[in-house]
Amino acid sequence: MLELKHISKRFGQSKQFAVQDVSFSIPEHEVFALVGESGSGKSTLAEFIVGLQQPTEGSIFWRGAPIQLQAHLQRHEQSRQVQIVFQNPDRSLNPYWKIKDIIAEPLILNKWTKLASQRKVEELLERVRLPHELLERLPTECSGGQKQRIAIARALALEPELLIADEITSALDPITERDILSLLSELKRDHNMSFLFITHRLETIRGFADAIAVMKNGMLLEMGATEDVLQHPANAYTKSLIEACYDDYA
Amino acid sequence: MNRSKKAGSVIVACFVGLALAGPLLAGVEPFAFDGERLLTPSSVNWLGTNALGQDVFSQLSYGARTTLLIGLGVAVLSTTLSGVLGLMAGYFKRLDPLINGLANVLLVLPSLLLVLIVAAFTSGGVWQLIVTLGLLTWPGYMRLIRASVLSLREREFVKASQLFHGKPSYILRKHLMPFIVPLLRTKFILSFRQAVTMEASLSFLGLGDPNQPTWGKMLEQAFHQTETWMTTAWQWTIVPPMLALLLVTIGLALLSEGEHQQGNRLLRSYSPSSRVKLLLASSEIAASVPCAHSSVKAAEQTQRTEHCTATHAGSDNAVVVHDLSVVHNGRTILQPMSFSIAAGSVTAIIGESGSGKTTLARAVYGLLPDDVMSGAVYIRSGGTNGSSETSGTSDTSNICATNGSSAERGINRWVDAAFIVQDPRLSFNPLLTIGQQFMEAMQGTDASSITVSEKRLAAKQALREVQLSDRLLDSYPHELSGGMLGRALLALALINKPSLLIADEPTGALDPIVKWEILNLLVTKVREHGMTLLLITHDHQAALRVADDMMIIKDGQLLEHAPAEQWLHHPATSYSRELQALMPSIRRRHISEEFKKVGFQHREGCRNLKKEQRNVGRTT
């Protein structure tokens, strides 16, 4: 579905890499987890995929077609199919907008009529299990978990096939985090969606991610099926990461 | 609307009324030589006539028109330019050097000189003045707006909108405009005021349009007539236009002041809470005089004292919280709670985001204003002198006083208690070196007489204690990694050996490996120095490993306060059970043993990692 081939990004002309020779692919209907400490280049990869940044080397393929070379129209279609939810819910929602306008934004920008988008917003709200009263509120009047659900609803508005979740639960407490994760599992089951799940918390992905890749200093250290990597980490860093997160492996 | 804004709008509205209705009421043309020279005010000439026999009220009201027109014109032009150019310069990287360069050129030009030249060459017409002033006064606010757009542009909602193919004009209008409207409002009023004074000065200097009645020209004429000062004529030829100018500028100043206050209401300063006080030495509490002795206190106070002494006497407490509640804007954030924390213990405060954990911590540290907080908090004094330093306080019944009227001193931050916030990267001032920030923290100590070199020595020692090189004192925060900053922050908190350390999610922003490293160090150091730690976290797994006591908070209510083992094995509430069910799998064995072991293994892991990093560094 999505394939990254030898992606690198360097700062200016220097020899320092933000991301160095990363390749992986995400099959259809799978959850792919990207794990690593802050600053290891995970979010940069996400920005390459949605097109907020360009890699200096390598290419990204969406359903076999390289996304950098696509014509404008196709690009438009591809960007509909891949959506991203950002880490910090406070920064990803405009504090001056009402919730209904926030969720409707992608619809309005895609020239939906007012009535149709209103109906769609209500449906989306139901899908992320938020109460109806929220529509008239401002983001500052919602809790962190609600805000993240709103951001998810906005990303779902155009019915994407791949959702990139960039540390969406790292600012949340465990109970809210569990609820968000079960929401994502539900979306995966009911809508056949794929996920690129970026996190620095290994404990969140067990039972949710199908495959996992561990990154450090912009390099891909290890990649494999989730349970394989968790049970038999090949890399010392992965091992210490797992130890820090799980008791039963310690 | 606050008072200054109200007063300002009333004054400005009066002059708008004068400008609109005045000329109709006056019934005389401003330049008509109708009456005698220098007539005193009467029912015909309300403000008398000037030395040429022209009606002063008519001139004043027509002058108000000119003044307000110029003010409005300049304000509209200048504000629009600042707003549009600021948005464009901030959002479009290509336009930025152009617009910013132009602004810099305009900022260094002497604007008064330019205005004088233009006014002199164009005979000072109203529209020429509006255009000149409008074109000259936009750069200052343009730069402010540009700076705020530069940071707003990086917000994720802007990125999201770009990904939905929102056009720049759409993003600027819908997303960014709301943020800069407050700036534009202030700019509008300031430009208005500037234009009014500028126009008056120019007319007074004789550079205005001679065919336009203005206040400045009225003053100029009056000042040039010798009769003005020989007779009482100054009372109606000079005072009215002068007063009008003064009032309009004051009215506008009040308006902008009100705007300013409203914009900054979140930043308003407050004195630290007087409800947080030092706890007296524990021995004194135990031996505290019976409550009946506190004869000065009212009966109600005595009762409370009795209760309090009964609750907390005898125990060696570092923190005593009595009936603390926090209500803000009618919303209850913390419901009344009383608890005490034993000295030298590690207490974890657990709860989901928004449950009031941080509010509780801020209340204990005295960071909340008095009007939202009720109840009392007592903290044991810390610092190198130990708790004995408050022994001079005589009235021990003050332990339960709920207001700040007592003679006790409030807590001394960084000395009696220290507060570590969530992100170590945000806790250091980026413009000061680590060393400078250590010096700052040491200023609060009573031993302020120690020399700089001694302080430096202490700082070096503190850094070594958290396994950091003392060379870091001269580095800036951005040169350090997240983990190093976490350690440095810890050293900073430890430097005065406070009796209480409050850590608000100290590891929330760190990845798991660094998280354990910092948490490990934190608890080790706290235990080593016999300090008390209040650890606020939503990571109850980590909390369970390090804490002696657990406090569970939900919706501002203290649900449970129990020793960690007891909480783990016999949770009293269903919420606690739900929390425990979420833990990946915790070995229900002896917690501290477990902690030591994991800490050790973790250090091993780190060492391996460092080796590996070094190897990688060598090969590349």
TrEMBL record, chain A:
Gene3D superfamilies: P-loop containing nucleotide triphosphate hydrolases. One of its GO terms (molecular function) is ATP binding. CDD domains: ABC_NikE_OppD_transporters. Keywords: ATP-binding, Nucleotide-binding, Transport. The keyword Transport applies. The keyword Translocase does not apply. Pfam families: ABC_tran (PF00005). Residues 2-242 form the ABC transporter domain. SMART domains: AAA (SM00382). InterPro entries: AAA+_ATPase, ABC_transp_ATP-bind, ABC_transporter-like_ATP-bd, ABC_transporter-like_CS, P-loop_NTPase. PANTHER family: ABC TRANSPORTER, ATP-BINDING PROTEIN, TRANSPORT ATP-BINDING PROTEIN. This is ATP-binding cassette domain-containing protein. It comes from Paenibacillus profundus.
UniProtKB/TrEMBL annotation, chain B:
Residues 319-580 form the ABC transporter domain. Gene3D superfamilies: MetI-like, P-loop containing nucleotide triphosphate hydrolases. Keywords: ATP-binding, Cell membrane, Membrane, Nucleotide-binding, Transmembrane, Transmembrane helix, Transport. The keyword ATP-binding applies. It is a multi-pass membrane protein. It comes from the Bacteria. Residues 68-256 form the ABC transmembrane type-1 domain. SMART domains: AAA (SM00382). The keyword Hydrolase does not apply. One of its GO terms (molecular function) is ATP binding. It holds the Pfam family ABC_tran. It is found in: Cell membrane. Its main location: membrane. The chain crosses the membrane at residues 68-89, 101-121, 127-145, 233-255. SUPFAM superfamilies: MetI-like (SSF161098), P-loop containing nucleoside triphosphate hydrolases (SSF52540). Belongs to the binding-protein-dependent transport system permease family. This is ATP-binding cassette domain-containing protein. It comes from Paenibacillus profundus.
